[in-house]
Specification:
The radius of gyration is 16 Å and the shape is globular. It is about 40% helix and about 30% strand. It has a five-stranded mixed beta sheet. It has about 160 residues and is α/β, with parallel strands linked by helices. The protein has a domain of about 100 residues: 2-Layer Sandwich (Nucleotidyltransferase, domain 5), CATH 3.30.420.10. It is built from four helices and five strands, in the order βββαβααβα. Helix 1 packs parallel to helix 3. The longest helix has 18 residues.
């Protein structure tokens, strides 16, 4: 998504990203979806994997959306995954200090994706928002549909 610099006062310089992951079985066939909105433009991204987990799909949705940005941006990420929202806002700091290990000294699950996400967030100014899933939130509902399309794309292969 190409982003032009716009006025700060009206908030139009903020890229809105809504993400979701889906998994049929956990682990199982998974999908991810991201809805991106900026300056009246909308971009929809989705994809999937044959054998994965829901948490991996939730992370991948955010990663793919941030990768789609072509320059540093102000971003608001809306996710229904507390795993993603708390992981990137709270837990990641101690994981990094402990060489990607938890407080019980176990390797952080999905650390390959957490490391990718950590690199991407350094490029942008990001605010993280948790939204209740399947509660009628338009952006989340659209991201959910995209994630399920990601699942379907794998099923059809």
């Amino acid at each position: 998504m190409k982003v032009k610099h716009a006025g700060i006062a009206d908030g139009s310089n903020v890229v809105q990203i809504f993400t979701d992951g889906a998994c049929k079985g956990n682990p199982g066939i998974g999908g991810w979806g991201a809805l991106m909105q900026y300056g009246g433009q909308t971009r929809r991204l989705s994809g999937g994997a044959k054998l994965t987990t829901n948490n991996r799909m939730e992370l991948l949705a955010v990663i793919r959306a941030l990768e789609a940005l072509t320059r540093p941006c102000k971003v608001q990420v809306h996710t229904d995954s507390k795993y993603v929202q708390k992981g990137i806002s709270e837990w990641i700091h101690s994981w990094k200090k402990q060489d990607w290990r938890t407080s019980s000294r176990k390797q952080v699950k999905n650390n390959d994706l957490w490391k990718q996400l950590d690199q991407l967030v350094q490029q942008h100014q990001i605010e993280w928002f948790w939204v209740r899933g399947h509660s009628g939130h338009d952006g989340n509902e659209q991201a959910d549909k995209l994630a399920n399309q990601g699942v379907e794309s794998v099923v059809k292969e």
